[in-house]
Amino acid sequence: MPISLTLLQSPLVPFVFGESWSKTLSEAEPPSHPILSVCKMSLRPGTNVHHGNQTAARLWTTSIDYIRSIPDCTAFYWASVKNEPETLIALLQWKDVSAWKKFQSSIGFRLMTAFSTPGCLNRALPLSLPDGVTSGDIVEMVPFQVAAAESTTNFTTIWAQFTANAQEANDPRWIVSGGWLERDGPRNYDSREEKALADQQPSVFLALIFCKDSPLSASTLSPSLQEGVSLLSQFVTGPCILTTPLRCETVAQPMPDLASPSQPISCNSMSRLLKIHPPRL
User: Could you tell me the superkingdom of the organism this chain comes from (predicted)?
Assistant: First the structure.
């Protein structure tokens, strides 16, 4: 059941720390761990968010303005997939679960996906982006997968040694990070079928390699790192994703007036968009 970087499998919905995105948190003990949102969106054919004269580009800019103003959004990076300008990757850093949940239920999320094909990748992992990540970095996203019935201990041991060797090498050309993607959960808690589907999901570890110049070739790494790459390759089950240089959006900006964007969008067009992408239940 390979789901590493595929589209969200209905009827499952995003979960974090074992709870649905829509569940109200307890005020007594709200989880405080930073959360990284990883979103992958395939735009409809002919859609281009890079050209400001298109409605899609104006909506994309509006969504960015809205999302970066959500309290406790601490970093917002996005890029296209290399040689696939209609596929976008967004990395959004949230202070905690509460902030992530606000994003999931916001109009900003719906605007961001307004011109995407049905079902975008929308996953979370308990991770803080490394301090050295900057605008212009090229990201290689590598999914590693362990079957649901198997232990993750072997992979975790190999990954820990690999990252230790990377830190020791202290190579300025790249920064390596990663974490376990939170599994999706059932939309309907009372459905045995949905729970069974959720239980079948493999454990997926997403490695994020931030390259400062160009993608690294394994042949340029030290022998210990090359060995680590070889050992890790047994867990790779899907294609890697390579992005164009990251764009960094400044966060904590004042909330924009969505009713009057710089180039107004008609109520009719907005209504059609919200009908295509209704609020998630």
Answer: Eukaryota
261, 262, 267, 270 alpha-carbon torsion, rounded to 10°: -70
Low-confidence ranges of the chain (pLDDT < 50): 1-9, 254-281
For 259, the domain range is 12-19+32-276
pLDDT at residue number 113? 84
Residues contacting 39, CB < 8 A, separation 6+: 88, 89, 90, 92, 112, 113, 120, 121, 122
Predicted TM-score of the model (pTM)? 0.81
* Nearest Cα to Cα of residue 169 among 245, 236, 226, 233: 226
Name every residue whose Cβ is closer than 8 Å to that of residue 63 and which is 6 or more positions away in sequence: 108, 109, 111, 112, 114
211-228, pLDDT tens digit by residue? 998 888 888 899 999 999
User: Is 112 contained in some domain?
Assistant: yes
Q: What is the pLDDT of residue 31?
A: 62
Give a yes or no: residue 24 inside a domain: no
- We report the CATH number of the domain holding residue 248 as 3.30.70.100
> CA torsion sign, 114 to 116 to 118 to 121?
negative
Residues whose CB is less than 8 angstroms from the CB of residue 194 and which lie 6 or more positions away in sequence, other chains included: 11, 12, 186, 187, 188
pLDDT of residue 74: 93
* 26 in any annotated domain: no
